[in-house]
């Protein structure tokens, strides 16, 4: 290896290490900011920390004891006064009162939804045993229990939908229980649902694990390849080959860091200052064009359709373009060759909204994974994502970009039948009624302009849109003859 080649190799390795250091710093800053700012004490999940916020019914906490005595006197009469009921309802914890025989004397409305109590006593055996122990010896006890959630989505339509930013009923609930004696005959059971806290702790652990793995893999490969180049110094062909591999791993590392930077930017900006009126159809066309090379490589058609007239929205154009581009890119990655990805733009005057739907005919998303697809670094199939160059950050970035634009994003999927991602944005009121009156003409004009730019008009697209109609939460898509192939 001559001095010039060796210098290039050293520079590549040094740059890769600097990129690695930047990525670790970004991950550390995100973890601290999210853990401290969003959830406060979420990092301390033990029962002692959570217990500090739970009203106690014994010991030195005379105020709580006196308050419960007032309530318990009413329980003996079988009624709860309106003021007392309101006080109980605004408490952060759910409340159940049982007597020393295990019979239910009072259940707060929120506690009834947990399916812990029946008509006469506790359904949960662990809870019944602990309550009996407290009634017998008067000692306060704390427990954390896990119960199955009985909340399920109904409906016979295939597939399932999820809206980013909403907390969907978990299959299991984590409950923090604080049980203490009120007097010699009654026991108060305070119940706090900490399922979201446990979920966040799991997300944070997954983030640390995933970012460490994603950074370690290319960094380790670069170090190994650099060592191999040293051993192959007398073989120019080997040096060129391994230098190319180092370049590829460095590119992968750089892409990961760039995604982290995009995510940080999306999370830290509101988009208000840079908001401007744009045509959602133009944004979708730009995003589709940016994915044209990947689509052509897999022989996938990208079809842009629109209905309802001009779709004016006031958003950060860069953020919205990034969101739609990521959705189309995902659709291409997870769709087989010779299929179609449809990007549909629709204006809904009655609701005052504009929807952008990206519909694919791909592998779909398993139901058990759908609730987590907008999490950072979460990937349904990690091996497949690495093969396609995915970082697991695309949908997290998309979610924040859409929120930056003042919109919402939801997903519907049926494993084996494809997925539909829907962005919903407020229709820009400043567009005026004149836009609506020009609806039909605008549709035709958009299609002609796209054709003049080199994209051809194609035929009907009813099949992918029929699948959207089956997803109840995504609404109905109007079909028009205006359709553009990218």
TrEMBL record:
<dbReference type="GO" id="GO:0016036">
    <property type="term" value="P:cellular response to phosphate starvation"/>
</dbReference>
<dbReference type="GO" id="GO:0005509">
    <property type="term" value="F:calcium ion binding"/>
</dbReference>
<feature type="transmembrane region" description="Helical">
    <location>
        <begin position="6"/>
        <end position="28"/>
    </location>
</feature>
<dbReference type="InterPro" id="IPR004358">
    <property type="entry name" value="Sig_transdc_His_kin-like_C"/>
</dbReference>
<dbReference type="InterPro" id="IPR013656">
    <property type="entry name" value="PAS_4"/>
</dbReference>
<dbReference type="InterPro" id="IPR003661">
    <property type="entry name" value="HisK_dim/P_dom"/>
</dbReference>
<dbReference type="GO" id="GO:0000155">
    <property type="term" value="F:phosphorelay sensor kinase activity"/>
</dbReference>
<feature type="compositionally biased region" description="Basic and acidic residues">
    <location>
        <begin position="145"/>
        <end position="159"/>
    </location>
</feature>
<keyword id="KW-0472">Membrane</keyword>
<feature type="domain" description="Histidine kinase">
    <location>
        <begin position="210"/>
        <end position="429"/>
    </location>
</feature>
<dbReference type="GO" id="GO:0005886">
    <property type="term" value="C:plasma membrane"/>
</dbReference>
<keyword id="KW-0418">Kinase</keyword>
<dbReference type="InterPro" id="IPR036890">
    <property type="entry name" value="HATPase_C_sf"/>
</dbReference>
<protein>
    <recommendedName>
        <fullName>Sensor-like histidine kinase SenX3</fullName>
        <ecNumber>2.7.13.3</ecNumber>
    </recommendedName>
</protein>
<keyword id="KW-0902">Two-component regulatory system</keyword>
<dbReference type="InterPro" id="IPR005467">
    <property type="entry name" value="His_kinase_dom"/>
</dbReference>
<dbReference type="InterPro" id="IPR036097">
    <property type="entry name" value="HisK_dim/P_sf"/>
</dbReference>
<keyword id="KW-1133">Transmembrane helix</keyword>
<dbReference type="Pfam" id="PF08448">
    <property type="entry name" value="PAS_4"/>
</dbReference>
<keyword id="KW-0597">Phosphoprotein</keyword>
<dbReference type="InterPro" id="IPR050351">
    <property type="entry name" value="BphY/WalK/GraS-like"/>
</dbReference>
<dbReference type="GO" id="GO:0004721">
    <property type="term" value="F:phosphoprotein phosphatase activity"/>
</dbReference>
<dbReference type="Pfam" id="PF00512">
    <property type="entry name" value="HisKA"/>
</dbReference>
<keyword id="KW-0812">Transmembrane</keyword>
<dbReference type="InterPro" id="IPR003594">
    <property type="entry name" value="HATPase_dom"/>
</dbReference>
<dbReference type="Pfam" id="PF02518">
    <property type="entry name" value="HATPase_c"/>
</dbReference>
<feature type="region of interest" description="Disordered">
    <location>
        <begin position="145"/>
        <end position="165"/>
    </location>
</feature>
<keyword id="KW-0808">Transferase</keyword>
């Amino acid at each position: 290896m001559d001095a010039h080649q060796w210098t290039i190799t050293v520079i590549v390795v040094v740059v890769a290490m600097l990129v690695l250091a930047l990525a670790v710093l970004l991950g550390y800053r995100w973890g601290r900011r999210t853990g401290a700012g969003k959830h406060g004490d979420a990092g301390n999940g033990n029962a002692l920390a959570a217990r500090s916020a739970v009203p106690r019914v014994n010991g030195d906490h005379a105020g709580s004891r006196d308050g419960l005595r007032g309530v318990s006197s009413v329980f003996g009469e079988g009624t709860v006064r309106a003021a007392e009921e309101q006080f109980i309802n605004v408490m952060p914890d759910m409340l159940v009162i049982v007597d020393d025989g295990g019979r239910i004397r009072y259940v707060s409305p929120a506690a009834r939804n947990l399916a812990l109590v029946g008509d006469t006593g506790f359904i949960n055996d662990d809870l019944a045993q602990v309550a009996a122990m407290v009634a017998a010896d008067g000692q306060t006890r704390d427990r954390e229990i896990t119960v199955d959630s009985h909340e399920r989505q109904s409906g016979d339509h295939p597939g399932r939908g999820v809206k980013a930013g909403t907390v969907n009923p978990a299959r299991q609930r984590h409950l923090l229980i604080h049980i203490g004696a009120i007097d010699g005959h009654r026991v108060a059971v305070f119940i706090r649902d900490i399922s979201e806290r446990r979920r966040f702790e799991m997300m944070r652990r997954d983030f640390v694990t995933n970012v460490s793995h994603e950074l370690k893999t290319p960094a380790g490969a670069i170090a190994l390849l650099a060592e191999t180049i040293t051993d192959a110094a007398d073989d120019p062909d080997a040096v060129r080959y391994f230098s190319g591999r180092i370049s590829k791993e460095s590119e992968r590392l750089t892409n990961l860091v760039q995604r982290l930077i995009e995510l940080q930017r999306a999370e830290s900006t509101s988009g208000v200052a840079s908001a401007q009126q744009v045509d959602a159809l133009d944004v979708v066309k730009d995003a589709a064009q940016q994915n044209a090379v990947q689509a052509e490589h897999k022989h996938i058609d990208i079809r842009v359709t629109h209905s309802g007239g001009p779709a004016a929205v006031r958003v950060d154009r860069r953020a919205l373009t990034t969101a739609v581009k990521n959705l189309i890119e995902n659709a291409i990655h997870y769709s087989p060759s010779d299929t179609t990805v449809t990007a549909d733009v629709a204006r809904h005057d009655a609701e005052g909204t504009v929807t952008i739907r990206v519909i694919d005919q791909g592998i779909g998303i398993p139901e058990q994974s759908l609730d987590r697809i907008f999490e950072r670094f979460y990937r349904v199939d990690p091996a497949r994502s690495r093969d396609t160059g995915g970082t697991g950050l695309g949908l997290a970035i998309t979610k924040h970009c859409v929120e930056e634009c003042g919109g919402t994003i939801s997903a519907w999927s049926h494993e084996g039948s494809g997925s539909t991602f829907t962005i919903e944005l407020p229709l820009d009121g400043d567009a005026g009624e004149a836009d609506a009156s020009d609806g039909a003409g605008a549709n035709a004009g958009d299609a002609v302009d796209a054709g003049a730019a080199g994209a051809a008009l194609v035929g009907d697209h009813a099949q992918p849109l029929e699948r959207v109609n089956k997803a109840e939460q995504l609404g109905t898509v109007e079909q028009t003859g205006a359709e553009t192939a990218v």
